[in-house]
Design goal:
Layout lengths: L9 E3 L4 H9 L9 E8 L4 E2 L2 E10 L1 H18 L4 E12 L3 E9 L2 H18 L2 E7 L4 E3 L3 H7 L1
Parallel strand pairs: 1-5
Antiparallel strand pairs: 2-6, 3-4, 4-5, 4-7, 5-6, 7-8
Amino acid sequence: MNNKKTKKVFVQGAISPEKIADSIASHQSKTEIGAHSIFLGQVRADLVDGKTVKAIDYSAYEEMAEKEIHKIREAAFSKFELTCAHIYHSLGKVSTGQVCLFIFTSSPHRKGANDACQNILEAVKTSVPIFGKELFEDESYQWKKNEDIVRNRT
């Protein structure tokens, strides 16, 4: 099911539980699928320099980011036995406890779904131009430093 059309990946605000549930439910009729793997990224209430994060305000170079995510998705179809792959990321303000990243992969077997989901996650986190501004409880902010990216590039 290798779809060449670039899909919209950005959702304004948090990714709702209903969107996640609807996505799962829409795959019940696809009887060639034997496994799904889901990753949900949630905003944490990190403590940074004595201040608690209350939300992250996400921004992106949308056209460039969507093209890069499309490449990542297509590469996953080439590398893994996938039936479906869906990737959604938030833009705008997402409060702590809310979902900001949703990756959903489907395959005839669990290994393909699990491996593809993890591969997509790592690629999105390291190569897609999405930026997060951490908003603190005291109304101050700072640009988020993604420690996973720092570790992967050193």
